[in-house]
Amino acid sequence: MTTAAPSHWPGEILAAFKAQDVRLVPYVPDNVLRPLIAAIEADPHFTAFPCAREEEAIGIAAGAVMSGMRAACLMQTSGFATLPNALASLVCAFQLPVVMVVSERGTLGEFNPGQAIVCRTMRPILDSMGIEHHTLSRLDECGFQADRALRQAFATRWPACLILSPLLTARPQ
Amino acid sequence: MTRPETLRSNTQVMNRAALTKRIVGKLHRREAVVGGIGNSNWDLWAADPARPENFYMLGSMGLAAPIALGVALAQPDRRVLALEGDGSLLMQLGCLSTIAARAPRNLVIVVWDNAIYQITGGQPTPAAQSGTDWVAIARASGIAQSHWAADEAEFDALIETALTTDGPHLIAARIDDEPGRSQTDRDPVRFAQAFARAMALPVG
């Protein structure tokens, strides 16, 4: 079977979600994520909705994944930084394959000093808990990375984080 | 028939362990129950430690209702209850708007209001100091079917309604300051796997 190749990064992520049967997408909005959120909300395969806070999205995804529905949480870097307790005490302690997709702010041209500082916390937090993370920076690789990272998360029952670099989302392709 | 509205000021102080037992005694269709951190969990455990449809959270204070929402969205035919303390709910009030926006018909939130952080030494919550009303907040967030339980009889009736009619429902009960009666095993991976296996079974 052949399908039309997705022509930009949101299509690659969406295709990976579908291939790995992710159906629930709680998110906290972000401007970079806007085309991905729009594409997911336009697709009846998905149930996608905004949450008041990133922790909520993690809780919702945890409940869903234990109940047979795979989920991915979308958020921005600064929102990710609110999560260490929920990741440690819920996602990691219970070994739940909760997937996060984080649009990376605070690097490669950031204007906001707060975003620049909080960005430096993200990978050390993930590393400190042994959460697999991949930085998606190239259109020709991001679909493969997303598909394989999700596949591993669900197979090994361990969380994963996809970091969407400005190299992917802002660089002219 | 409508009954007169119960206000917080007209409610009896009840006991969380006793009310939790009353809830669990009404569950016959593999309903999922998500217990909040600490005492809410421990009384759920004490009510029936062998019940695999119970999920005992650890340190993610405030996430009982969001976890229950995730279960409810994944399995619309299963009733799902969250048992949450007042201090915990105060940490994650935004979830009431999220729940109201999704309007899951199968979700029930029970709020245990002892007005204190019992487990950390009984300090008053700011909600207690300010006179915050959980039912009023829930209704203003969009959960129309939110009620205070005046006494055990009304609590029973509210739970029966919540288990048999479309929600989301929120039931608030004032409770005493008794600590949890026992503690859960410290075995989160076993809990998650047992709960997931139970959720894979059809609703009874």
UniProtKB/TrEMBL annotation, chain A:
<feature type="domain" description="Thiamine pyrophosphate enzyme N-terminal TPP-binding">
    <location>
        <begin position="13"/>
        <end position="106"/>
    </location>
</feature>
<keyword id="KW-0670">Pyruvate</keyword>
<dbReference type="InterPro" id="IPR029061">
    <property type="entry name" value="THDP-binding"/>
</dbReference>
<keyword id="KW-0210">Decarboxylase</keyword>
<dbReference type="GO" id="GO:0016831">
    <property type="term" value="F:carboxy-lyase activity"/>
</dbReference>
<dbReference type="InterPro" id="IPR051818">
    <property type="entry name" value="TPP_dependent_decarboxylase"/>
</dbReference>
<dbReference type="GO" id="GO:0030976">
    <property type="term" value="F:thiamine pyrophosphate binding"/>
</dbReference>
<dbReference type="Pfam" id="PF02776">
    <property type="entry name" value="TPP_enzyme_N"/>
</dbReference>
<keyword id="KW-0456">Lyase</keyword>
<dbReference type="InterPro" id="IPR012001">
    <property type="entry name" value="Thiamin_PyroP_enz_TPP-bd_dom"/>
</dbReference>
<protein>
    <submittedName>
        <fullName>Sulfopyruvate decarboxylase alpha subunit</fullName>
    </submittedName>
</protein>
From TrEMBL, chain B:
<feature type="domain" description="Thiamine pyrophosphate enzyme TPP-binding">
    <location>
        <begin position="37"/>
        <end position="172"/>
    </location>
</feature>
<dbReference type="InterPro" id="IPR029061">
    <property type="entry name" value="THDP-binding"/>
</dbReference>
<keyword id="KW-0456">Lyase</keyword>
<keyword id="KW-0786">Thiamine pyrophosphate</keyword>
<dbReference type="GO" id="GO:0000287">
    <property type="term" value="F:magnesium ion binding"/>
</dbReference>
<dbReference type="InterPro" id="IPR011766">
    <property type="entry name" value="TPP_enzyme_TPP-bd"/>
</dbReference>
<dbReference type="Pfam" id="PF02775">
    <property type="entry name" value="TPP_enzyme_C"/>
</dbReference>
<dbReference type="InterPro" id="IPR051818">
    <property type="entry name" value="TPP_dependent_decarboxylase"/>
</dbReference>
<dbReference type="GO" id="GO:0016831">
    <property type="term" value="F:carboxy-lyase activity"/>
</dbReference>
<dbReference type="InterPro" id="IPR000399">
    <property type="entry name" value="TPP-bd_CS"/>
</dbReference>
<dbReference type="GO" id="GO:0044281">
    <property type="term" value="P:small molecule metabolic process"/>
</dbReference>
<keyword id="KW-0210">Decarboxylase</keyword>
<protein>
    <submittedName>
        <fullName>Thiamine pyrophosphate-dependent acetolactate synthase large subunit-like protein</fullName>
    </submittedName>
</protein>
<dbReference type="GO" id="GO:0030976">
    <property type="term" value="F:thiamine pyrophosphate binding"/>
</dbReference>
